[in-house]
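Input (structure):
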């Protein structure tokens, strides 16, 4: 993957925690190291919560589809899922199924999982910020990402009234 996430701060000052929450980031981590670190810092009965959210795959909004189309043109081909999500051959609650095996092998017990839909209203500015974390643009250098976002923004302003746009999204736990 070639991506590094660095931590600033003294890990020794964290102490032991009852719970850790990871939101929209697990696919970027070195999962073996992340699991080991969670095990090291969690209390014995501690809980690791991994959450993700994304645009609804079965009910995509035209704006999402147009953004995907622009990203595909800019990338000269298909837009792949981000990080280790690209390795997935099957999914459970939107997560790659092998993640559950990894968590279980490390001693984590799966106690609950669910998924629900919700609607998010977007402005042009908010959509531009959101799209910078979109799997189609993730990994671009800053200049390329800003160019793509600008290109998308011009298209959206031409074709979509953002104050009326609501995108159906989903979240998984």
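Output (sequence):
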């Amino acid at each position: 993957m070639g991506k590094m996430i660095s931590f600033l701060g003294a890990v020794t000052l964290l102490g032991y925690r009852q719970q850790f929450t990871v939101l929209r980031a697990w696919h970027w981590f070195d999962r073996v190291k992340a699991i080991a670190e969670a095990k090291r810092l969690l209390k014995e009965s501690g809980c690791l919560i991994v959450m993700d959210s994304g645009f609804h795959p079965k009910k995509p909004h035209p704006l999402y589809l147009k953004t995907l189309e622009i990203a595909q043109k800019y990338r000269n081909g298909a837009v792949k899922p981000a990080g280790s999500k690209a390795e997935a051959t099957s999914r459970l609650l939107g997560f790659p199924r092998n993640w559950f095996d990894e968590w279980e092998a490390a001693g984590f017990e799966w106690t609950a999982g669910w998924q629900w839909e919700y609607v998010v209203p977007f402005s042009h500015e908010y959509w531009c910020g959101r799209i910078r974390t979109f799997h189609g643009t993730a990994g671009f250098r800053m200049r390329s990402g800003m160019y793509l976002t600008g290109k998308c923004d011009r298209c959206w302003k031409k074709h979509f009234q953002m104050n009326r746009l609501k995108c159906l999204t989903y979240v998984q736990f």
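Notes: The chain has a mean pLDDT of 77. The longest helix spans residues 142-159.
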